[in-house]
Design goal:
With 256 residues, the chain is an all-alpha fold. It has a single domain, classed as Up-down Bundle (3 helical TM bundles of succinate and fumarate reductases). It is 77% helix and 0% strand. It has ten helices and no strands. Helix 2 packs across helix 8 and helix 8 packs antiparallel against helix 9. The N and C termini lie far apart (94 Å). The structure holds protoporphyrin IX containing FE (HEM). The site of protoporphyrin IX containing FE has 25 residues, from helix 2, helix 4, helix 6, helix 7 and helix 8.
Length: 256
Amino acid sequence: MESAAKRNSMQSLLEDEVKKSRMPARLDLAQSLSGLALGIFMWTHLLLVSSILLGNDAMYFVSKMMEAEFLTGTGHGYPVIVVCVAATVFTLFISHAGLAMRKFPASWRQAKVFRSHMAMMVHPDTSYWWSQVASGFLMFFLGSVHIYVMMTHPAQIGPYESADRVWSGWMWPLYLILLFCVEVHAAIGMYRLAVKWGVFDGADPRANRRRLQKIRTGITVFFLTLGLASLAAYIKIGIGHADHVGEAYVPAHHSN
Ligand code: HEM
């Protein structure tokens, strides 16, 4: 009698264990999905930010489209749209960072052990993990500052407004470091997603993994170049506009 009760309680303990063991997989999936959404956002975001390379009017057009200015036609749309997008991105960003923290080294000793394994193995995918930890950690701080500013100043996005923030508002050093962190992190993250879920494994996973690594390098170089060129453009405009900080850009067809 007693042993039957013992067996039952052992069984329910085992069942509990089986139920619990699904959680890491669910958290992994949540981390992958939030990472995918953030990666797509980051690449789209940089393409939009780089509209400054096509001129002030192009960047003005993009910023007004984001506010849905075409619905009012008054030169002012609904900056609350930017607030909502920024709040959604911030929530995703915090959730993704929280999920990633599960796998951060928990002590100096663990970090040291990992680093010595990494040095011994000289295996790119193992080293990528360390880059993700380092760039992700920096983004906790730098990314939060930027998203918070965007959320609280949604109407101050435009060629002069952004350039003033970059140059006169001293955001350029933050953007410079953030840009490297974001582009390295996003490209490695997308590559790891493809490898982890076997998206492009095909008939020869090894050869395809090498191909994916080349694509990853290409994408990183492309977005870093685009980001640096855009940052340089904002700095140049910001220097020229330093005596008129706070004045919004008005395109020629509006002033006429
Ligand atoms: C909805 C949220 C976001 C909005 C509305 C937004 C908007 C902008 C805008 C307008 C700029 C141009 C400079 C300025 O106006 O200050 C910019 C630059 C930048 N943003 Fe964001 N951003 C958002 C989220 C993020 C996130 C989540 C990251 C990364 C964690 C990020 C990284 C950057 C970087 C690195 C730059 C500099 C780009 C360059 O060097 O060319 N942004 N962003």
